[in-house]
Amino acid sequence: MQRKAPDFLFLFLTLIFTAFGLVMVFSASHVIAYKEYGDAAYFLKRQAMWAGLGIIVMIVVMNIRPRFFKRITPFLLLTVFLLLFTVYIPGIGVELNGSRSWIRVSGFSLQPGEAIKPALILYIAYLLEKKGEGVRNFKNGLMPPLIVTASLVLPVVLQNDLGTAMIALMTVMVMLFVGGARFLHMLVLGVGAAVFAGIFILLFSYRLKRITAFLDPWQDPLVSGYQLIQSLYAIAHGGLYGSGLKSIQQFFYLPFPYNDFIFAIIAEQLGFIGAGTFIVLYALWILQGILISVKSGDFYSQLIGIGSISAIAIQAIINIGGVTGMLPITGVTLPLISYGGSSMIVTFFLSGLILGISRSRRERQKDRKKSAMPVLKHATHLTSRMN
User: Fold this and answer.
1) Which tens digit of pLDDT belongs to each residue from 164-207?
2) Is position 303 within any domain?
3) Domain count of the fold of the chain
4) How far apart are CA 33 and CA 198, in angstroms?
5) Count of CB atoms within 10 A of residue 377's CB?
6) What is the pTM of this model?
7) Maximum CA extent, the chain
8) What stretches pass through the bilayer (predicted)?
């Protein structure tokens, strides 16, 4: 394949959202940062460092041909699996915000569980291309990727990071569906995953409180419902045009306004028009990622692209849904916008994969016919798969 320049629109929007995120992190955190660390730019400096590192990662990844990742997929899976257990090493693993899913290295907190997203995306793409129509067979086609997925997702669940586990699992489900798995199989798996999630929530009272707080936050306004109520206050206070870069929720009312709930600050400061514009541009970014993926010259690249953009989109939907009270709060960040190094590095890695796919040029017309746009073909023949 010949190589061309990366997709301009996707790259441009990636950098725009990165810059916008830095502005919003500073706006949401400077009061807290000054009180706790004596430096109003404390969180901004750290986020800028992660953004710079992430951009380097993105540039490196987008200059690697997608098929290179086939050779390192087994090594990557093993590395990520072992990395998940570093959170239990004394002196390295730490518990933050109720989750034993962090390690501390040189003063920085990292979340190893974030790495399961790119690892699973590359593995599922590799396996689906290898199996082809065999994925329609449950025992020999669908069970192997499900076993590997479970081996990476379950440790994350046990670390109390249900949000990351949900994103990874839903991303795998999307990839399996567009990769040719039977609709009935996917329906059964979806129901099974929902039942498992329900049992897990019932076993842990604080998880159940999050669900009840989502349904009625005013039932416990000072504890389980407090964060959502303050988020809704922020959104309401923003009105149509917003309050500008100064807002009430900066002043210690909304917990972690620069992290999981940064969209509430966006809505408060920029109003309905600003927040709506942000969502439209974010949706455009997601759509462009999808278009890049389905226009790729081979099935493997299509699956990598669809998996990467699905992971980003699912995480954004879960985050904004939780902030606005439409979904339960899970504690996941808003990609490229929220404060957080691990999430940002992974998002840039996934963006680099998509940009790398956009650089691949199909050399012959017969290559286009051979690929036959498998993702679109499966969607077109949806009814034939419902058996």
Assistant:
1) 999 999 999 999 999 888 888 888 888 888 888 777 777 766 66
2) yes
3) 1
4) 38
5) 12
6) 0.90
7) 64
8) 7-28, 48-65, 72-90, 110-128, 140-158, 164-180, 187-208, 261-287, 299-324, 336-358
